[in-house]
Design brief:
By secondary structure, the chain is of the alpha/beta class. It contains twelve helices and ten strands. Helix 6 runs parallel beside helix 12. The longest helix has 15 residues, at about 20-35.
């Protein structure tokens, strides 16, 4: 019984929507440095957030590791406020006003194209071009109902084009161009462009750069109007059974060592202002409040247009 109690005290249950290549080196290093053993529960962002919402307090996980902060913000009531001691070193652009989450890495939204089938000069350079009939049936895009990063990219398009098109116009025109052929996840969307099944696609920078490093013949475009770089985040689940271990993990993921690992090996942009050295991009603000307030409305119309 004593051994079980000690084992429980040294445990941390992490719900994560990150891919294994992201979470594995970070979790392994955390275990080695802290002596805490980590149980991983993988899943999609929305799937895990719903799991947290319906679990009884204290009966499930300790940490939600991953998911865009616009998604985490919607579920902020399920999290325990915490501010890491290294908070002052972090970019506060998208910091939680209630400390319900902590930013982890920046994820610029980008366009990609198959270089064998589309010449660079002919590739789309703006968000508006995605509404053009020229690309009808040839856009790879993951379902925003299932993919948090896909919802972020959809909101980016809506917000960037708001002076020219209403929210409904963007959704209708974009859905028309997709022809009901929607990927079930981000990896499937990228693969469709790599394989030449689709000419162009929308994804996030890290995923595109990793595929290029692995030999994929695709090009990356940062839209002329700019793009958003909404961070993903990490949050302590309310009434987590291993609160102290959860706090240690929150400190660890924003440490200088982990943030350098993101930039040097994992193709992600650091949220630490004393670490980031990635090439600058034209970054435009992302309205988190608009994204949160219109989420249900946007996704309801999306499902209606893409049954």
């Amino acid at each position: 019984m004593e051994e079980y109690r000690l084992a429980e005290e040294q445990k941390l249950t992490v719900y994560t929507s990150h891919k294994k290549e992201i979470y594995e080196p970070i979790i392994k290093e955390f275990e080695e440095r802290s002596g805490i053993w980590v149980e991983i529960v993988p899943g999609g962002t929305n799937e895990l957030l719903e799991k947290i919402r319906f679990e009884e307090n204290g009966s499930g996980g300790d940490i939600m590791f991953g998911g865009g902060i616009d998604s985490l913000e919607v579920y902020s009531g399920e999290f325990e406020p915490y501010r890491p001691t290294q908070y002052d070193h972090l970019d506060h652009t998208y910091a939680s006003e209630t400390d319900s989450y902590t930013v982890f890495s920046k994820l610029p939204t980008v366009l990609i194209y198959n270089k064998k089938m589309v010449i660079s000069a002919g590739a789309p350079r703006s968000w508006e071009e995605l509404l053009s009939s020229r690309w009808k049936g040839n856009i790879a895009y993951a379902d925003p109902v299932k993919s948090g990063s896909s919802y972020t990219s959809l909101q980016t398009m809506i917000q960037v084009l708001s002076s020219q098109y209403s929210q409904e116009q963007v959704l209708r025109n974009f859905s028309y161009n997709l022809e009901h052929d929607i990927a079930q996840g981000s990896e499937e969307a990228i693969e469709a462009v790599v394989a030449g099944e689709k000419l162009i696609g929308i994804t996030y920078e890290e995923a595109a750069l990793k595929r290029i490093e692995a030999g994929a013949d695709i090009g990356v475009i940062y839209p002329e109007q700019g793009t958003t770089a909404v961070p993903d985040g990490c949050a302590i689940i309310k009434d987590a059974p291993h609160q102290e271990n959860a706090r240690l993990f929150m400190e660890f993921i924003v440490s200088e060592d982990v943030q350098r690992l993101l930039e040097d090996q994992l193709h992600r942009r650091s949220v630490r202002e004393d670490v980031t050295n990635a090439e600058a991009i034209e970054e435009i603000p992302y309205d988190l409040n608009y994204s949160r307030e219109h989420r249900e409305e946007v996704l309801a119309l999306w499902e209606e247009l893409n049954p």
